[in-house]
């Protein structure tokens, strides 16, 4: 297939004409096949690699009437506050008036905090309240929502931060 | 006994056929590969363990860029004309037919309503430079609410895939404003575009996935 007829049409040459040597025109195609398959593998691997995924988020309906809101049991609540510079603050239950149970943690260690709280509370009371500060980034928020999926937290809420908490974050980050 | 002469055969195989197949496949892959369209808005999305692939049709895409500016765009198969006509009606923008057609061709909208008319008069390249963003952070004047309301009405009867694509570095208030706009229109379900990431080994979700896989395998 990959050769050509080079026999010269078969007409007889005279006695003085030198017979030219018949050379094969066969080319070794193995390297070409190698290259072809190498490129195919490359294309297969690069095409399926990056496909954006999507994370679902269902929002709760806002109710104006306070009796319609399902109140979280205070003992089972863990409030996570997202501050600037990827710092996370948290407190369990109600925030103490003197801010004594207001603690600082990082993105990596928050998993242990959540899991500890989860183990120590009744599953039906456990709820995580997420309050992003205005200096926190979108990434922080998505990361903490993702953390809820990773830690298998069934109930969590994204809530606006209160003024007291905002001031506490400011005061705490000022000291550090 | 006469010896049977085994004719010596060449061991070289004709590679042509294999070469043909290889290049045929190669050209097929090259031609079918869809290159990522160069995006006018560069957004670096966060990672998540979500494994669901983002939907690709009937989209309403809200983009938040790294400065916290909000942009609105629709996929090609979305009822663009209905959306802009609805917005036009709600805000009395007085858009002409030509401007409405311009909207259906625009890649995204990232200007307040006061500048929308001017924006639609620009050509495609100039439009890409208009990155003022739709105002969302002021709760009294959250213009995205109007956009979402118009989309909700235009999509009536068909599925609306609401997608939010935020940049890692955008600040929370823009995200909050976008959520507020969704909530006002009773669009309670939306999806956030993320990059896939592996589930951390040993975490609760990891254990659950392992258990699920085991029960599927019937062990």
Approximately what portion of the residues of chain A adopt beta-strand conformation? 15-25%
**From N to C, what is the helix and strand string of chain B?**
HEEEHHHHHEHEH
Largest sheet of chain B: 5 strands, mixed
Level-2 CATH architecture of the domain at 72-175 in chain A: 2-Layer Sandwich
Strand arrangement across the biggest beta sheet of chain B: 1-5-4-2-3
Low-confidence stretches of chain A: none
Protein structure class of chain A: alpha/beta
Give the CA-based shape of chain B.
Answer: elongated
User: What is Rg of chain B?
Assistant: 27 Å
- Summarize the biggest pleated sheet of chain A: 5 strands, mixed
Structural class of chain B: alpha/beta
The beta-strand count of chain B equals 5
Please state how the strands of the largest beta sheet of chain A are arranged side by side: 4-3-2-5-6
Report strand % of chain B. Answer: 5-15%
List keywords for this structure.
heterodimer; A: 176 residues; alpha/beta; Nucleotidyltransferase, domain 5; B: 219 residues; 5 strands
Overall description:
The complex is a heterodimer of chains A (176) and B (219). Chain A is an alpha/beta fold. In chain A, 31% of the residues lie in helices and 18% in strands. Chain A has four helices and six strands; from the N terminus they run αββββαβαβα. Chain A has a five-stranded mixed β-sheet with strand order 4-3-2-5-6, with helices on both faces. Chain B is α/β, with parallel strands linked by helices. Chain B has eight helices and five strands; from the N terminus they run αβββαααααβαβα. Chain B has helices at 16-32, 80-91, 97-105, 116-121, 124-128, 144-154, 172-184, 204-217; strands at residues 47-48, 59-64, 70-74, 161-166, 189-196. Classes of the chains: A alpha/beta (176), B alpha/beta (219). The interface between A and B is large, with 50 and 59 residues. Strand 1 (53-58) of chain A pairs antiparallel with strand 5 of chain B, so a sheet runs across the interface.
């Amino acid at each position: 297939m990959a050769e050509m007829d080079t026999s010269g049409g078969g007409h007889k040459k005279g006695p003085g004409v030198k017979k030219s040597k018949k050379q094969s025109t066969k080319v070794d195609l193995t390297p070409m096949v190698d290259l072809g398959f190498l490129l195919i593998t490359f294309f297969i691997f690069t095409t399926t690699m990056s496909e954006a995924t999507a994370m679902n988020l269902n929002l709760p309906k806002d109710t104006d009437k306070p009796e319609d809101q399902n109140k979280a049991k205070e003992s089972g609540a863990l409030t996570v506050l997202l501050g600037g510079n990827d710092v996370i603050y948290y407190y369990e239950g109600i925030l103490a008036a003197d801010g004594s149970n207001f603690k600082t943690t990082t993105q990596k260690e928050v998993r242990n905090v959540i899991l500890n709280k989860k183990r120590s509370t009744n599953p039906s009371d456990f709820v995580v309240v997420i309050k992003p500060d205005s200096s926190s980034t979108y990434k922080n928020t998505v990361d903490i929502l993702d953390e809820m999926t990773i830690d298998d937290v069934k109930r969590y809420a994204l809530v606006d931060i209160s003024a007291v908490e905002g001031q506490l974050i400011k005061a705490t980050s000022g000291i550090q | 006994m006469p010896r049977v002469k085994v004719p010596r055969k060449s061991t070289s195989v004709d590679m042509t056929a294999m070469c043909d197949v290889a290049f045929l496949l190669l050209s097929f892959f090259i031609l079918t590969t869809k290159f990522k369209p160069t995006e006018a808005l560069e957004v670096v999305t966060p990672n998540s363990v979500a494994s669901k692939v983002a939907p690709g049709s009937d989209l309403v895409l809200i983009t938040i860029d790294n400065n916290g500016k909000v942009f609105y765009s629709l996929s090609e198969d979305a009822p663009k004309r209905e959306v802009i006509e609805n917005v036009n009606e709600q805000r009395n923008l007085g858009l002409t037919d030509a401007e409405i057609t311009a909207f259906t061709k625009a890649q995204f909208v990232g200007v307040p309503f006061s500048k929308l008319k001017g924006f639609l008069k620009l050509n495609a390249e100039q439009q890409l430079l208009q990155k003022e963003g739709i105002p969302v952070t002021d709760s009294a004047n959250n213009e995205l609410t109007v956009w979402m309301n118009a989309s909700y009405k235009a999509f009536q009867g068909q599925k609306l895939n609401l997608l939010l694509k935020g940049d890692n570095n955008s600040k929370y208030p823009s995200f909050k404003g976008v959520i507020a706009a969704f909530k006002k229109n009773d669009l309670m379900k939306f999806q956030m575009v993320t990059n896939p990431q592996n589930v951390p080994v040993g975490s609760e979700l990891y254990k659950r996935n392992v258990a699920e896989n085991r029960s599927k395998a019937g062990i």
